[in-house]
Specification:
- The protein contains 2 helices and 10 strands.
- Strands 6-7-8-9-4-3-10 form a 7-stranded mixed sheet. A 3-stranded antiparallel sheet has the order 1-2-5, with no helix packed on it.
- It is mainly β and 164 residues long.
- The chain starts with 5 loop residues before the first strand and ends in a 9-residue tail after the last helix.
C-alpha cells in the first residue's frame, strides 16, 4: 500500500506540489544559509526522492547558492526546496509549506553551531553541530533510502560521530 501523498505549496498558491513517496525524516536546520533563505530562526526540512515529487503548477524558481539549488515561488518568494544540483536524487522541501505539516516529525537539529543564541532547544531531539552523520536517518525510519544509487545526498553531509 502506497503512503498517502503529501501536498503543499507556497503562500500565494502559484506553486503547488505533491510527493507520492515516503519522506526522509526531517530535521530542523539552524545554518545561516537556511535562516536567510527562509527569513526565520531555523527551517524544518523533509526530503523526497526526485521522482516522487512533482509540481502541479508553476515550478519553483531556483538560485545556485553555496553549492546547492534553493527553490522559491517566483511570485510570492516563499521558500520551498533545496537540492544538491540539477541531477540530485533527493529534494528537500520545507515542512512548513506542506498542507499538513504534522505528517512529518523532525528527528534532529542540525547545524546547531550556527543556532541563534536566543533559541533554546528543549525538545529532546539529537543536536548536531553540523549535518547528521552518514548513518542518519535510521534504516527503520527510511529503509528505502538505503537503495539509492546516487551519492549526491550523502556527499553534502560531513561525517559526525555523535550528537552534541
Amino acid at each position: 500500500m502506497s503512503p498517502k501523498p503529501i501536498s503543499g505549496g507556497c503562500l500565494c498558491g502559484a506553486v503547488r506540489y505533491e510527493a507520492s513517496g515516503p519522506p526522509i525524516p526531517g530535521s530542523h536546520c539552524h545554518c545561516l544559509d537556511c535562516r536567510r533563505h527562509a527569513g526565520a530562526p531555523f527551517v524544518t526540512w523533509a526530503g523526497f526522492r526526485r521522482g516522487d515529487l512533482r509540481f502541479l503548477t508553476t515550478p519553483p524558481r531556483e538560485i545556485a547558492w553555496a553549492c546547492r539549488l534553493r527553490g522559491f515561488c517566483p511570485q510570492c518568494g516563499s521558500p520551498l526546496t533545496i537540492r544538491d544540483g540539477p541531477d540530485a536524487e533527493i529534494v528537500d522541501v520545507t515542512v512548513a509549506s506542506f498542507d499538513d505539516p504534522t505528517v512529518v516529525t523532525p528527528v534532529a537539529h542540525i547545524w546547531t553551531e550556527d543556532r541563534l543564541p536566543w533559541i533554546h532547544l528543549a525538545d529532546g531531539l539529537p543536536q548536531f553541530p553540523q549535518a547528521r552523520s552518514r548513518e542518519e536517518p535510521s534504516r527503520a525510519a527510511a529503509p528505502w533510502l538505503y537503495g539509492l544509487t546516487s551519492t549526491n545526498f550523502w556527499m553534502r553531509l560531513p561525517v559526525s560521530t555523535s550528537p552534541v
